[in-house]
Amino acid sequence: MIGPLATALIILALVIVLSAIVAAGRNRPMGTVLLVMLALLELGLLVQAGFAVAGVIGGRGPAETATLIGYLAGTLVIPPGAVFLGLAERSRWGSAVVAVGAFAVCVMVGRLLQIWQGTA
């Protein structure tokens, strides 16, 4: 795991949360901006997952490898799921689903850092 990348992913996820809340508050469906931000988040999560898996294979990972892999897999499926549900629901609730998904990613990346550092 790369600490600065994880921090950037958390910040990006929080920006997505705020943008989605603003869109939902303005009674707008998920737009192109949220879609692009979610794609960037997914790309960053894929990079982070690659480094984490390489670290585990190289023997530098934590003792809780099953938990780490579970959280990595979870973080990778949430953004595409949020995109799918956000596009399927063409009302303000599509943006609300994106906000919830991005917040879940934010929390899960923080938890991944705790697991990797051995503080949890």
Brief synopsis:
By secondary structure, the chain is mainly α. It is 82% helix and 0% strand.
Structure description:
By secondary structure, the protein is an all-alpha fold. It has a single domain, classed as Up-down Bundle (Four Helix Bundle (Hemerythrin (Met), subunit A)), CATH 1.20.120. Helix content is 82%, strand content 0%. It has 4 helices and no strands. It has helices at 3-25, 32-57, 65-88, 92-117. Helix 2 packs antiparallel against helix 3. The longest helix is centred in the middle third of the chain and has 26 residues, at 32-57.
Topology:
Blueprint: H1 3-25, H2 32-57, H3 65-88, H4 92-117
Helix pairs in contact: 1-2, 1-4, 2-3, 3-4
Keywords, separated by commas or semicolons:
Four Helix Bundle (Hemerythrin (Met), subunit A), 4 helices, mainly alpha, single chain, 0% strand, 120 residues
Order of helices and strands: HHHH
- The whole-angstrom Rg is 15 Å
State the CATH topology: Four Helix Bundle (Hemerythrin (Met), subunit A)
In the predicted model, the low-confidence regions spanning at least 5 consecutive residues are: none
The amount of helix comes to over 70%
Structurally, the number of domains stands at 1
Strand count, sense and closure of the main sheet? none
Envelope shape: elongated
Keywords: Membrane, Transmembrane, Transmembrane helix
Transmembrane segments: 33-56, 68-87, 93-113
Protein name: Integral membrane protein
